[in-house]
Amino acid sequence: MENYKPIPIGVEDFKRLIDDGYYFVDKTLMIKEVLDKKGAVNLFTRPRRFGKTLNISMLQRFFEKTDEDNAYLFDGLNIAKAGEKYMQHQGQYPVISLSLKSMKQPDYSKSFSTFKDVMKREFWRHRNILSSNDIVPEDREIFTKITHGTAEDDTYITAIRTLSDCLYTTYQKKVIILIDEYDVPLEASHLRGFYDEMVDLIRSVFESALKTNPYLEFGVLTGCLRVSKESIFTGLNNLNVYTVINNDFSYCFGFTQQEIEKIADDFGMQDKLPEMKEWYDGYLFGQTEIYNPWSILKYVQSVRSNETCPSQPYWSNTSSNDIIHELVVNGNEETHNQIEALVNGESLTKPIYEDITYRNININTDYIWSFLLFTGYLKPISMHLEGDLIYAEMVIPNREVSTVYKRMIMQWFDEKIRTNGTDDLFKAIIDGNAESFEEEVNNWLDESISYHDNYESFYHGFLAGLLMGRRGYRVESNRENGKGRTDITICEYRKRTFAVVIEVKIAKNFMDLDNACDKAMKQIEDKHYVSNMKQNGYKKVLKYGVAFCSEKVCRVKLEEE
Predict the structure, then answer these.
(1) pLDDT tens, position by position, 34-51
(2) Which residues contact 107 (CB under 8 A, 6 or more apart)?
(3) What are phi and psi of 93, to 5 degrees?
(4) Is 541 helix (H, G, I), strand (E, B) or coil?
């Protein structure tokens, strides 16, 4: 084990990754493809933590002309094997590299201040060019003010263009512009209420840097969404967009099946391949099957420390998953039905809007499904054209992402219980009113989103959740009792005069509900649940057989001893 290379969790600097000997999945052929396609401005949209930042760093380390020779970083890698035609570009260009991910701020002022700081640091990184006598005085003055943080606000709108001018003047080579996480400030501003201001800022910055810049060799941008309808890219007719439904560059972000098999070989984890596939596979970029790279690396790291470590939802634990929470909490009945179908393994066919906007991401419109597709919460299994629209049949990618939906469903359900209360349900049970018990549960079922991978476990938890937290009563789930475990017990714990035993069963269909209730009653009898409770001092015990079926219907039968 000690001979294995360290796993690069959170290492996003390509140079550090190579220099420090981290394990590396070679994505350098992305450089070849960028050069071959000769796109003036290239936008790559992928879900979070799929290697966008590392690839931007890789491009910077390859193309940037620096005092230090970085060619050695690519020794033995695929781009070097591609030949001198491509390696002759190594270290030949001035590069502007920016990340906008830190612009996730609570208001426009703080966000713009962060942008100014980003520009200040990039200008400072290139401060050595001030020694050039070719830079015109006006640009030199602006350059100096930005590096010292004293420039006027308007100066930052054209700061990338100004830096491009200075770099071209110094090196007599056109400039490569790399912008990572370009849409983070747009998302943050949408959530915080200053969206229009942020759109104006980003549009103006991009226009001067990417549209009217004569010194641009090419640009590469990354983000989760393409948002061209916002007029962020107004008039940018040299923009090439590569989303998850495009074949080009499909292997460059995330791990392919071949790469996963090599990882398994390299770390002696061939026996873990089925588990890795179930949990972290399932993405489809173009026609390429893709695994989640963040989760795979976290899983490999965990298994190296403990070979019996179970799979976990690593990717879904890296953010709040607010969009799924919004989908569940604010979705209407139709939206809830669609979520329920998805978590139960069914597909959903919807039109795909590649240029969706944050403004039109409404939870209860078709736009939301495109958002979920591009951000990694859904995957396409087939696509077809109807008129001018592409329609995709989509499913939840894998078990990891499925846990996100289920977790949000349970959180939402708990919130509804706390808000609406279940006193009427509890009173019906205590009073021995089976009809009201059944009616109340059916009302809650109408409001719920169920998943059927383990029917009995889900409905058992569903009912237990409705009954927990009662003053004067002890409500227990899976309690040892008699010759087994009762699904749910309710005990008046002070006087011990009264108790309830509830056994939950799943019916094959609506017509089987009564039969399932009878089976529940028989289990209560056969396992001696009631006699055991009476031995513990409970004088009166109500027995409930409760059955559920996939049509989200509950049936209740009652007996008293």
Answers:
(1) 999 999 999 999 999 999
(2) 192, 194
(3) -130, 145
(4) strand
Q: Which of 504, 477, 497 is nearest to 489 (CA)?
A: 477
Helix (H) or strand (E) holding 297: helix 293-305
Q: Per residue in 534-561, pLDDT tens?
A: 887 888 899 999 999 877 899 999 988 7
The answer to whether the beta carbons of residues 71 and 87 sit under 8 Å apart is yes
pLDDT tens string 124-161: 999 999 998 999 999 999 999 999 999 999 999 999 99
How high is the pLDDT of residue 1? 43
Q: Let me know: does 253 contact 44? Beta carbons within 8 Å.
A: yes
Q: Distances in Å between the alpha carbon of 90 and those of 45, 70, 86, 174, 283?
A: 25, 8, 8, 14, 32
Angle at 239 between CA 237 and CA 245, to 5 degrees: 130
Confidence of residue 22 (pLDDT cuts 50, 70, 90): very high
Q: How many helices (H) and strands (E) does the chain have?
A: 22, 16
Measured distance CA(116)–CA(237) in Å, rounded: 28
CB proximity list for 558: less than 8 A, separation 6 or greater: 432, 434, 437, 542, 543, 544
Which of 22, 89, 18 lies closest to 58 in space, CA to CA?
A: 18
* 225 alpha carbon, distance to own chain's centre: 13
